């Protein structure tokens, strides 16, 4: 047995290399990943069952940064705290987002967050169907907002086609740091108001 | 001058090849695109100024499928109709979404939709700052929902960690076609209710 000339392969190294590829290119393939790690594709399969497991490892990296609040406060505050932390985590990995929604969730940290949301909404007397709809709404809004948080400070370019009403709206936000954060807080308030009580 | 052995290069062919790459891999690079079109990178630059223009061509493909309603109805109905059509278009191109939010918007069809939203909200007496916030909320929710529309029918896998409250919620939606559509309509109603009047 020779001494290994590269660090020993592990699920952790595989996940980090896949994350680097996703961040740089928007995706990963098993052959690309093997090339990046300087191993054969078959060595990868000694550590992971395939692409789907690697996607779950990536989800776990992003979700492990979500901080869950104490769950015994008023439901709207608990939900808002989870949404803020969830958005912050995914804003770090915008190109990961379409991969996350393309595969069924099973990572333990993700399930923990969804458990916390479902428990909080159930305690607030929302029924199971409403709970699922609200969770989906939270996911859709948070992931869209995480993409916006990673967007340029000025997400709309100048164009001769911009009409006066849109120009007036744009003038209130353009070139302002914190634009995406403010828009997220506005959306969060609208959402919670719109959900109302059970 | 010999007869060209491949179809003549055009911005349209470049955009379609870039869309194929994004759909297959999540992104594109100029060298990959040149290889796919069997031309040199420098030939590409005879037709497009660079990556940013290609991204706008892709946005234009997705946005040209958005159908704008008559703008003279009640504002909430106009906004809902735009949101439904906007989501349907992007649900066809989920892996395009992070590229869309990473570059400033200038494609004519996109500007036309934002003009319609701004005009509708302004006529409904929302101020320019609220108009920008509502437009951003619409973008975030619609793009997140478009990703969800492209998600598997059962977006949550089974896991031993699922707690009873989350399991009860999941049981109401799993394996049901139309799950994402229903959740979008629920979210749309919540959003419009939460926005309320100006």
UniProtKB/TrEMBL annotation, chains A, B:
Keyword Transcription regulation on entry: yes
Source superkingdom: Bacteria
InterPro entries (alphabetical): Homeodomain-like_sf, HTH-type_TetR-like_transc_reg, Repressor_TetR_C, Tet_transcr_reg_TetR, Tet_transcr_reg_TetR-rel_C_sf
Swiss-Prot/TrEMBL keywords: DNA-binding, Repressor, Transcription, Transcription regulation
Gene Ontology process terms (BP): negative regulation of DNA-templated transcription; response to antibiotic
Pfam family, one: TetR_C_1
Molecular function terms from GO: DNA-binding transcription factor activity; transcription cis-regulatory region binding
Domain Tetracycline repressor TetR C-terminal: residue ranges: 72-195
Protein name as catalogued: AcrR family transcriptional regulator
């Amino acid at each position: 047995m020779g001494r290994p000339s590269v660090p020993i392969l592990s699920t952790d190294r595989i996940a980090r290399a896949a994350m680097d590829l996703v961040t740089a290119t928007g995706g990963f393939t098993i052959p690309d990943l093997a090339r990046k790690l300087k191993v054969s594709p078959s060595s990868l399969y000694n550590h992971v069952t395939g692409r789907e497991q690697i996607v779950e490892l990536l989800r776990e990296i992003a979700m492990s940064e979500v901080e869950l609040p104490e769950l015994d406060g008023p439901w709207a505050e608990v939900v808002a705290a989870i949404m803020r932390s969830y958005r912050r985590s995914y804003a770090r990995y915008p190109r990961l987002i379409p991969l996350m929604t393309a595969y069924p969730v099973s990572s333990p940290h993700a399930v923990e967050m969804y458990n916390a949301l479902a428990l909080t909404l159930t305690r607030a007397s929302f029924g199971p169907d409403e709970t699922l709809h609200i969770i989906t709404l939270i996911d859709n809004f948070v992931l869209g907002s995480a993409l916006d948080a990673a967007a340029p400070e000025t997400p709309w370019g100048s164009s001769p086609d911009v009409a006066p009403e849109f120009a007036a709206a744009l003038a209130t936000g353009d070139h302002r740091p914190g634009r995406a954060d403010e828009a997220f807080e506005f959306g969060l308030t609208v959402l919670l108001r719109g959900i109302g009580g059970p």
